[in-house]
Amino acid sequence: MMALDLLAGVRVVEIGSFVAVPFAGHLLAGLGADVTSVGGTGDDPARRLPASGPSLYDYLHEHKDIRPRTELAGLVADADLVIADARDLPAGFTAPERVPVAVLRVAPGEQPPQCDATVLAALAGVAWAIGEPGRPPLGMPAHTADFLAGLVFAGSALAQFLGGAGGVRESSGLAALSAFVEQNSTSYRASGIGWRRAGRRAPGSAGIYPYGVHDCRDGQIVLIGRSTRDWQEIATGVGAGAVLERFPDPFAIARHHADEVDDLLAPYLAALTKAEVMALAESHGILATPMVTPAEALAYDHLAGERDFWATLDGRRVPGLPFLVEEPA
Amino acid sequence: MSTQQGTLAGVKVLDLGWVWAGPLVGSALADLGADVVKVESGRRMDPYRMRGVERRADLGDLRREASPSFHKLNRSKRSITVDLRDPAGRELFLELAGTADLIVENFQAGTLDRLDLGWPVLHAANNRLVVLSMSAGGATGRWANLKAYALITSALAGYEALVRYPGEPPVGSATFGVADPTVAAFGLLAALSGLARARRTGRGAHLDLSGVEAVLGVLGLPFLEAAAPAAGEPVVVELTLRCAGDDAWVAVALAGPGDWKQLVATCGSDTDWPDWHRLATEPAEQAAAARRIETAWTAKADADDAATRLRAAGLAAAPVLSVEQRNERSPWADGRTTIEHPVTGPEPAYPSPWGSLLPPRPAPLLGEHTDEVLTEWLAYPADRVAALRAEGVLS
């Protein structure tokens, strides 16, 4: 991963533990800021994740200066920006008037114990729409709700810094997740489809069939059709011309027959490997991808070359920043 | 005219974004006080103008102004129409770029190059300019031509395979669409960082963002787990428990054996439960334990009451809310205001997670501010604007 200087010289003090605020600090450090972390108030569960190898704590703090909380006042006095988890702010915390202080809460006015991802997904309306109908809603996996909250918080804090004014501004992970659900659910509700769990498909197939996960012979693939032509290509491509003949309208399938058409397509897809489906998708102009596991994604060597995406931690690949900076010639 | 104030007051943005991720970056910037000008043309307008109203032919020409999804993603912006394929339109865009601080675009990689508006050309027009490009796989490398919707982006990154019931094949999260907001959040962070450096050094930059890499960027933990020499028990176990009523649930997170013991005690039973290690590592034990807790307690309890009781016991818990419930009860909804759109009337507006310093303004009608922006940004006299319009450049 290339070393970036976009925030060179910006002094950030981080007060927090586990995922969201340390991830925000990790991102700002990756962008070139000088980030000093004083941690949180107690044991940091990130040190125990995963059970072996480099920890999440190691990953999130690799490029930071780690200092004891006793030095906080002096650090804040010299800071350009403070980012803090509300739970970890010391009683009576103050900062010079010129210093912007960005404070993250899980939700406005409350601080549950430190398992934010579960609470965020439940309260924001995310969990409600993930999983099988009639079965328990699923949250977001692998603390990604916390990572997303931290990512948004980093942007919010940076905007505060750019504004040039000091003072405390609070934001919440709930606001981030809720805003994203609101954006996405609006189109479902406007179309009369509703925002709900629909298993491996989007509800109402997001308006046009197909839009979801399907089984094939050696695993799963994602298939997306966004027009009548796409549906024709998918059905003929996998040899399901009879299904197309019976169900020619992907809009009508989405509304009324998605389960039935899923069942009718299943044997055609079950006869094909992921690679065969992908070859068909390419030749027919269909949007598709095999379902990739994190272990398989880690093997994306091509992202190590021209894209310079991967960073390393103790010799292991970890994600870097997802963009390249092209400089003036 | 432009009335923006706030954190990014004075920052001028040309928003070539379309569909979701690009426009979301622009709306966040507008919420923060930047002057964001959305650039479309009548021939190639943002397809999200039709999102959710595809079949509302009854609306005639007003259909393109009636999409609630488009309205949410484009509030507080201004709109101009310029045909970038017309040489005069391209020249006009370059003049606008000459006065802008930031351009945001999420076309398929290479689109601006084909219009002869790639980074070298834009940089020559304005060496302080920051250009944020967001494409599915980035502008370089094997995925430079990748075409992807949200679900494909997140499946390629390995996210969707993680969405599963314990011990079962992946379900995925086709509904939520984690990719676009993740891409937009990284895009905004990149853009703000670029603006910070341009302000400090006078140097512009091209920020070439990949959507797949953005989703990979929030998967640090599963990548560490995938590379770990030995699997261990998870630090957090999440249980979602059925409550009384239709499709009512409470979610609780257990961060170790102490929390598990507390849940069992709260449930009112303390005999013959699996120990923490078995609960954390054996999916069947986890499912059976959840069903037992439901039978003993939560299936007869109101979800809010159950969450309150769990939280009183020191556990992280919340009722699982639908969007409608959330909009009625969540503290997030307290920030709701109403936008009066000239075509569709009052619509609810919620605060931006990046900060909203001003009451939002309605999403612009197509080309609503063309004359105004050309006058304000470029000091074009009215007759010059009229001539461009007559030549079809502003259509």
Give an account of the 3D structure.
The complex is a heterodimer of chains A (329) and B (395). Chain A is of the alpha/beta class. Helices cover 37% and strands 16% of the residues of chain A. In chain A, strand 1 (11-15), helix 1 (20-30) and strand 2 (34-37) form a beta-alpha-beta unit. Chain A is elongated. The model of chain A has no long low-confidence stretch (mean pLDDT 93). Chain B is of the alpha/beta class and 395 residues long. The two termini of chain B are 21 Å apart. Strand 12 (323-326) of chain A pairs antiparallel with strand 6 of chain B.
Q: Structural class of the helix and strand makeup of chain A?
A: alpha/beta
Distance between the termini of chain A: 20 Å
Q: β content of chain A, as a range?
A: 15-25%
**Major sheet description of chain A:** 6 strands, parallel
Q: Extract low-pLDDT stretches of chain B.
A: none
* H/E element order of chain A: EHEHEHEEHHEHEEHHHHEHEEE
- Residues in β-strands, percent of chain B: 5-15%
List SSEs of chain B in N-to-C order: EHEHEHEHHEHHEHHEEHHHHEHEEHH
Task: Give descriptors for this structure.
heterodimer, A: 329 residues, alpha/beta, three-stranded antiparallel beta sheet, 12 strands, elongated, B: 395 residues, six-stranded parallel beta sheet, 16 helices
Q: Could you outline the blueprint of secondary structure elements for this entry?
A:
The complex is a heterodimer of chains A (329) and B (395).
Chain A: E1 11-15, H1 20-30, E2 34-37, H2 56-61, E3 65-66, H3 72-77, E4 81-85, E5 100-105, H4 116-124, H5 144-163, E6 167-172, H6 173-190, E7 211-216, E8 219-224, H7 228-237, H8 241-246, H9 250-270, H10 274-284, E9 287-290, H11 294-298, E10 311-313, E11 316-318, E12 323-326
Parallel strand pairs in A: 1-2, 1-4, 2-3, 4-5, 5-6
Antiparallel strand pairs in A: 7-8, 8-9, 10-11
Chain B: E1 12-15, H1 21-31, E2 35-40, H2 68-73, E3 78-81, H3 87-99, E4 102-105, H4 111-114, H5 119-125, E5 130-135, H6 150-157, H7 179-201, E6 205-210, H8 211-216, H9 220-227, E7 237-242, E8 249-254, H10 257-267, H11 276-281, H12 283-296, H13 303-312, E9 316-319, H14 323-329, E10 337-341, E11 345-349, H15 370-378, H16 382-390
Parallel strand pairs in B: 1-2, 1-4, 2-3, 4-5, 5-6
Antiparallel strand pairs in B: 7-8, 8-9, 10-11
